Amino acid sequence: MPEIMLKIREDLGPDAVILKTNEIKQGGFLGFFQRKKLEVVATLDSNPIDETITNEKKNSIFKPRVSEEKTDQALVLQELQQLKNLIHSQHKTELNLSPDFLLVYNYLVEQEVEENLAYELIETIEQEHTSNISLQDIVEQLRAHIAHQLQELPSQKSTDRAQIIHFVGPTGVGKTTTLAKIASDYILNKQKKIAFITTDTYRIAAIDQLKTYAKILQVPVEVAYTKEDYLQAVEKFSIYDYIFVDTAGRNFREQTFIKDLEQTINLHERTKTFLVLSLTAKQNDIQDIFNCFKPLQIEHVIFTKVDETRQFGSILNIALQHRVQVDYLTNGQDVPSDIIRPTEQYISELVLGDFFNE
Questions:
Q1: Could you give the 3-state DSSP secondary structure of residue 64?
Q2: Rounded distance, CA 247 to CA 330, Å?
Q3: Which DSSP letter does residue 154 get?
Q4: pLDDT confidence of 29, banded at 50, 70, 90?
Q5: Which of 123, 188, 219, 226 is disulfide-compatible with 214, CB 3.0–4.6 A?
Q6: Least confident of 114-123, 166-175, 195-204, 237-246
């Protein structure tokens, strides 16, 4: 298989993708002495994902373009948005919240906190304060309440004994870069011995990327094409403190992809699985992604691309509704920096920090 991968890379380049692999037998006599051969079908990805965008390029991409005067279309869109906000505000009066509490509720919804969760959080604060309370005090009380809710989640200390750490998630969220950041922390700050395994044989460039990080960090790496390869690599690296396993990023809506993951990686008491999610994804898509990966016993989540959005409600949706730990946040492409180990207070401030700036 490595010889085939090298040939594919030479013919099609690093953006080639594997469509199908098949073991065939040729030659022999009366069914004996047949030779096994491997047939691989590959093609060139017409829409490759570039995960090497620099911060300078990102800033230029997301820099707002200011025109001297608004077009008629922009004015119409603005009026439609104002009408939408008016209808939305009138609808929310049915929640029976006082004006200040309603204002904070609307802010949470704008932060993409799901409506039911936003109402539960606000209602708790309102029930605890029957007397008059200032808007600033409501926000402060809510900030403390969110932090307390996050503290009540199952502790991650019970999983520190895990030796094998899987990184799973949809395509384009930055799993490999995130894996390298965490590995750097374990090696440089915790003096741990780390080994890499990749099961991402779908995209050749992904293998090269992990091998590059492995070379920089002086970490051994094995490529697992099958479940047997994976088990052999785990056995080979059993003397290491931690084994980081990078998996393929594919369309999460394809159930066969999730089943393939279940069949490739082992899930037992010595393993921990990080689901890597992007905060730039739509709120509903993030929920769908989590539900699709549920069979992998997800208890830990990493959110990437914090620097590319101003809506952070999805962190609360996943953490509080699914009772999982948010172990890391990433805010850039730089390795080993641009990664945060957030406290409960940090997440609470991230969601509510812009309230008085709106």
A1: coil
A2: 19
A3: P
A4: low
A5: 219
A6: 195-204
pLDDT of residue 113 exceeding 90: yes
Q: Which residues constitute the domain of residue 279?
A: 160-357
Identify the CA nearest to 313 among candidates 61, 96, 97, 116: 116
Please check whether residue 4 is in contact with residue 39, taking contact to mean a CB–CB distance below 8 angstroms.
no
Q: How far apart are CA 13 and CA 42, in angstroms?
A: 11
- Cis peptide, bond prior to residue 336, ω within 30 of zero: yes
- Whole-number Å distance between alpha carbons of 335 and 185: 10
If one counts the domains in the chain, the total is 2
* Cβ proximity of 94 and 105 under 8 Å: no
Alpha helices (runs of H) in the chain, residue ranges in sequence order: 2-12, 55-62, 72-92, 99-110, 115-128, 135-151, 175-188, 204-217, 227-236, 255-264, 283-293, 313-322, 344-352
In a domain, 184, yes or no: yes
Same domain, 172 and 320: yes
Q: Is residue 275 part of a domain?
A: yes
What Å distances lie between residue 223 and 21, 30, 144, 264, 305, CA to CA?
A: 16, 36, 46, 12, 27
Q: How far is 64 from 162, CA to CA, in rounded Å? A: 44
Radius of gyration of the chain (CA): 24
Q: What is the DSSP letter of 63?
A: P
97 in any annotated domain: no
272 bridge partner residues: 165
In degrees, rounded to 5, the angle at the alpha carbon of residue 339 between the alpha carbons of residues 335 and 344 is 170
The arithmetic mean of pLDDT across residues 275-286, rounded, is: 94
> Residue 82: inside a domain, yes or no?
no
203 and 337 share one domain: yes
Cβ burial, residue 256 (10 Å; 0-12/13-18/19+):
exposed
Report DSSP state, residue 203. Answer: B
Burial environment of residue 290 by CB neighbours within 10 A (0 to 12, 13 to 18, 19 or more)? buried
Is the pLDDT reported for residue 55 higher than 60? Answer: no
